[in-house]
Amino acid sequence: MIQRSTRLDAVHYELCGPIYEQAKELEREGHRITKLNIGNPAPFGFDAPEAVTRSIIDNLRHAQGYSDHKGLLSARESIRNCYAAKGIAGIHTDDISLGNGVSELILQAVQALLNEGDEVLVPSPDYPLWTAAVRFSGGKAVHYLCDEASDWNPGLNDVKSKITSRTKAMVIINPNNPTGAVYAPELLQELVELAAVHNLVVFSDEIYDKILYDEVAYRSTATFSDEVLTVTFGGLSKNYLAAGFRAGWMLVSGNKAKARSYIEGLNTMASLRVCSNVPAQFAIQAALEGDQGMQDLVLPTGRLRQQRDTCYEKLVAIPGVTCVKPKGAFYLFPKIDVKQYRITDDQAFVLDFLREQHVLLVQGSGFNWQQPDHFRIVYLPEVQELSQTMDKLALFLQNYRGT
Ligand code: PLP
Q: What ipTM, to 2 d.p.?
């Protein structure tokens, strides 16, 4: 028997887990599945800005060799300018590293920091790669609760109560996946102050920072402190609708002098994989310096905003379903009355829906949410398809009683 590493025992990524495998099986049997399990804009008819795809085509011949392990200087200059304009102090291009999507950089950043048993504060619910990366690195993910009753904002006292002498870092996902919450500047300030007091590294996942609705106030976490070591993550997958290009970056700011060893570790991690995919690195400058027309998608007449509104309204009209209206990203994280529908296992619930209506959702527990009373919807399909899909959910729930 060939056994997997025990390091993987507690590592899960349900977005492509057993239920996704079931969906593929149904597809092989000839069914058409509406896949609302992953935030991948392209299959729903979204296109990256023309200049972004063009830059890859035009530069392909110059992209045949390895780049520097941190990535092309021109891309890093562009990222530096972009974050300096947001108000992050003292950024040098050496503080920026490019990756094959943010996913790879999350793994690098966490692996470079943790020793066996070190703790990281991770939100619940979370984007599950964060919990997975901590566990894979031998660390312990300690979940702080985001409070649905307060628009999914983290409770500061809960965060405080979970800090121990082993806590090394705090993860902030803002705008948030899966809840769609966008944190008020005051809350971010308090979280950063807490990190300062306990000498924690802040990992700020800001991959959705251009997908903001209703003119909500937004600030990048690193702007709150020149002292707290903050690693900010961003990329092209969501903001620029180009998830398949695998282009992301991370930026280290704050008191870098006290983090020399960690920064060397990040450098080692980046060099171990030589460099990220070079054609996609060319797309970064084109994206950041080019036409920002995709931002119209979140305006009142914009496609994403209309899809959010339709999906939200249809959803909350279903008896026993409630939801906080998202202010960012492209997900809804509704609550379902588990007593009314006799749900004890959210995975079974999502699987039953898939089998009956051929719609793929992800159960709340896939986002490290501890109760079986939530699920996540990706609202990327066009309004008409979303609307029909929500009708299917309503129909399914009419007769559904229990797992
Ligand atoms: N962070 C968050 C919060 C995400 O939702 C995702 C993807 O869904 C990622 C990171 C990873 O993005 P990518 O690897 O495509 O850059």
A: 0.99
